[in-house]
Amino acid sequence: MTVDAQPVTELPDPADYGFTVVPEEEIPAELASLVERVRSLMDAAAHTEAPPEALAAAADAVAKAEELIQGGRRQLGAMVRYTYPDGSIEYGTITNGVSGPVNPLAPPLLLEKDGEGGIRGEVLLNGLYQGPPGLVHGGWLAALLDQALGTASSVAGMPGLTANLDVNYRDPTPLNVPLEISARVTGTERRKVFVSGEIRHGGKVTAEGTAIMVRLSLPE
Ligand SMILES: CCCCCCCC/C=C\CCCCCCCC(=O)SCCNC(=O)CCNC(=O)[C@H](O)C(C)(C)COP(=O)(O)OP(=O)(O)OC[C@H]1O[C@@H](n2cnc3c(N)ncnc32)[C@H](O)[C@@H]1OP(=O)(O)O
Questions:
Q1: What is the ipTM of this complex?
Q2: Average pLDDT taken over every residue of the chain
Q3: Is residue 155 part of a domain?
């Protein structure tokens, strides 16, 4: 396999292309805690068997909470800038559906460099991500792999879009247990970046994926 997709030493700064960029460390603690609270609320709402009066009162309280945060809405497409411990920079959309730090739908997922050129992270998926009884929905596993594979390409200096994603489900993935995710670049060819990754539970691979990311070609 050739190595035409040259890594860049510094990622393009989305601010140079008109995107709002929020440094991760500048996300207000109050927003982080609101997002965490909403995650917990979603889990509670999805599983509650409380009586109707309690449900009606809760819906009112939520409507009031929503009113409190109306006014001032972040631009769609706003980005977040992560600074890794080694000082390198990574970008993502701040409301990314799989890993956006301010998106309550996104399970808390922190991907870090694995020291060998790839990335790794841990995630715990609760009943909100259920497919078969007690098991993680396969679509969410594919989404997590997509994100990890895209991030692996990006931390290797080759950010791009997923052109192709292949997922194999090897073993059922349980809810409510820590899952380990890892991914790395395996080769390049022109603008194509080949990546592979796994999701493990207790050391055993439950899902694995490969993808072709096509490097962004940005206007000069
Ligand atoms: C300004 C901002 C700066 C940003 C800085 C960094 C940002 C952070 C970035 C990243 C980190 C986070 C990571 C996110 C993770 C999540 C990722 C997603 O969910 S992505 C959403 C889902 N994917 C799409 O929506 C793509 C839709 N498809 C397309 O837009 C196009 O098809 C695209 C770009 C993939 C390719 O189009 P073409 O016109 O640019 O290029 P062509 O010439 O068609 O293909 C290039 C090569 O790729 C092959 N190719 C294309 N599609 C293929 C396919 N489906 N399967 C196999 N090969 C394919 C072609 O055969 C060609 O290969 P040959 O060089 O000729 O050998």
A1: 0.95
A2: 94
A3: yes
